Amino acid sequence: MNSDSIEILLTNENGKAWERYPAGYVKGFALCGDRLLTSAALLETVAAAAVGGTLDRTLGELNGNFSMVVRAGGKLVLIADKLRSYPLLFCKRNIGGNCNGLIRIADRASRCSEGDR
């Protein structure tokens, strides 16, 4: 799936604000052992794990409240903490009664169907 067919609408700034980096979007923080990972370090750690094939193990080691949309290894990965403190939703857009293949990623349910006819 190419990036033209994906729309990312992250607008819920309640609690913590979304931060945008070249590798994606992140909100929150995590502890990995006794190390605090703030937004940039958290995103970098998870992106490296996704590319390196250790994503499952890395996510299992994280504790905190966070949500991320990560671009890594040609893939787009949606990640939320165990409690889903900041939920992420995705849907396929429906325009004119036809699914046109556009994927929308949002942090509010109302944004998923917004503009559908």
How would you characterize the overall build of this protein?
The protein has 117 residues and is an alpha+beta fold. The strands form two sheets. Strands 2, 3, 4, 5 and 6 form a five-stranded antiparallel β-sheet that branches. A three-stranded mixed β-sheet has the order 1-8-7. Helix 1 runs antiparallel to helix 2. The longest helix has 14 residues.
- Cα shape: globular
Would you identify the regions where 5 or more consecutive residues have pLDDT less than 50?
none
**Overall pLDDT level:** 88
Tally of alpha and pi helices: 3
Q: What are the key terms here?
A:
117 residues; alpha+beta; five-stranded antiparallel beta sheet
Describe the secondary structure blueprint for this structure.
Blueprint: E1 6-9, E2 19-21, E3 24-32, E4 35-37, H1 39-52, H2 55-61, E5 62-72, E6 75-80, E7 89-95, E8 98-106, H3 109-113
Short description:
It is built from three helices and eight strands, in the order E-E-E-E-H-H-E-E-E-E-H. The chain has 117 residues and is an alpha+beta fold.
